[in-house]
Structure formats: structure tokens, C-alpha cells
Predict the structure.
Amino acid sequence: MDRTSVNWSGPMPAITTPFHDDGRIDEAEFAENVERLMKAGSTGVVVGGCTGEFWALNHDERKRLFVVAKEAMAGQGTLIVGTGAVTVAETVALTLAAEKAGSDGALILPPYFVKLTDDEIHAHYADVSKAVGLPIILYNIPGNAVNALSPALVARLAGLDKVVAVKESSGDWNNYYATYLAAHQKLRVFCGPSSVFGVPAVELGADGTIDCFPNMWSPGGLDLYNAPKRGDKAEARRLQALGRKLTDLCTSGGRTLYPATKAAMDMQGLPGGGRPRAPLRALEGEPLHGLKKGLVELGLL
């Protein structure tokens, strides 16, 4: 397999996982959010990734989410699900469950917490690749995973049979673009922090964007891909500037990205928000007030 084995492209939001007050996954709200974003123009969705708080879900919940997502998609576009875990056995089990549920691809980050060498990371992906049937999208998010997929390592991993794409979410433009140059001939390359530099990424060849912001900012978050793709430079500049400001708002003043995303969705009356699952905490007090004030100033409330 390689980039030609799949047709993945365009804006594919990373979907939040909503919860009931008692902590159970709110499947109805989740499905409603998926359906809303597909109607808004998404080409697919990414479920159970970092935005989806995968680390706070047990394996049965993750597997159930794959099934609910497949039902909600109803064949409308690409369904990629997060199946990364620390061990090969867990990653394989989750990926096989994703395949059984009808997912189109598996988003797999490297093992996290324990610091690994490039050879160890490569061996992990090689073992997973040999044991599964789904196409794999590599996930580079060293700020969360500790272990980084460098441009050179991504190019090396591109030689594995099931690897067809990479989501580059380092947040570092130089690393993103070096990864693109090193791997785009074999892998589809998706820009993670499109709110920060999605426009130049698309203008220089990114196959698509995968980001959390369309959950609270649609169609703007989707049009970070669409505007530069159609050559609308003025709109692309406007959206990128707004995306940068929105990113800063959601990651400052005592706020972090995922609780801020859900709080913003609640303020707009959108499905899929609500409380994050511990260890994350819902925004309250000044961080919550500051978010509302900032959204009003940005014209999003």
C-alpha cells in the first residue's frame, strides 16, 4: 500500500467525544455532531483521537465508538479512527476491531510515555502493520506522545506495507514541511494544526487537514482547506488570521485546547460538547468568562 491505495483528502475534523453526566459516552450527541460536520462539507472524520479524549476511554468504549461512528457516517465519507496504544497487542486488537466495524483507516500514534529510539518506534509500527488489514495513518504529536516521528523516520515508515498517510501535528512549520518533502510522494500528508498554518500547508500540497476547530468553528475551520484550494487568497488570509487568534484564545488564560473546544461548542448550542472526562476538567470562572469574551470579539458568538 501507499498514497495511491486510498482517496483520503480534504478537511476531516477530529471529533470530540461527549459524555453524559454519569460519565457514559453520549452516543446520540456524538452521532449528531458527526452528521452536522459532514453536512457542513467535511470529506470525512477522525474519531477517537486526541480531540476525542482516547486516553480516558477504556478499550470497550473505544471499540464501541468505532461502531457508532460508522453508523453515523452512513457511507458519506472517510472514517478514520484512533487505535494507538502503548503495546503492539493493544494496538493490533483495537485496529482489528476498527476494521470489523467498517472503518476506512487507523490513526496510530507511536507508543507514549516511555521514551523510545527510532528503531523501537519503527519496530512497533512494523509489527502492527504485519498484523492488520486497515491502511494506517501515522500520527506525529510529540507534545502528547513524547516520542516524535521525525521527517526521516516518517520517510522510513513509509516503506511499511500498510502505511499510507501521516498526520503531522507537531505544531512546528519547519518539521511539518520537512515531513511533507520527505514523504509526500509515498504518503498522503495531512496538516494537524490547520488553525495555525493550514493555508500555507494546503497551498504547498497538503492532501488535507485534520483539526479540532471545525467542532466549534464551521464552516471556517473546514474552509482553511477549501479557500486556498480554490485559490481564494483573500478569504484564506482572513481565515488563517482568525484561526491563529482562536488558537491563542483556547490555549491561554488558564485554558487548554480540548476543554475550551467543548465549552465553545456549548456556548454556541452545538452537539458534542459538555464536560471532558477526568483528568481534564470543564472550564469555569475566569477561564470560562475569558473564552466567552474572546469568542464574542472574534465574531463566533
The longest strand covers residues 163-168.
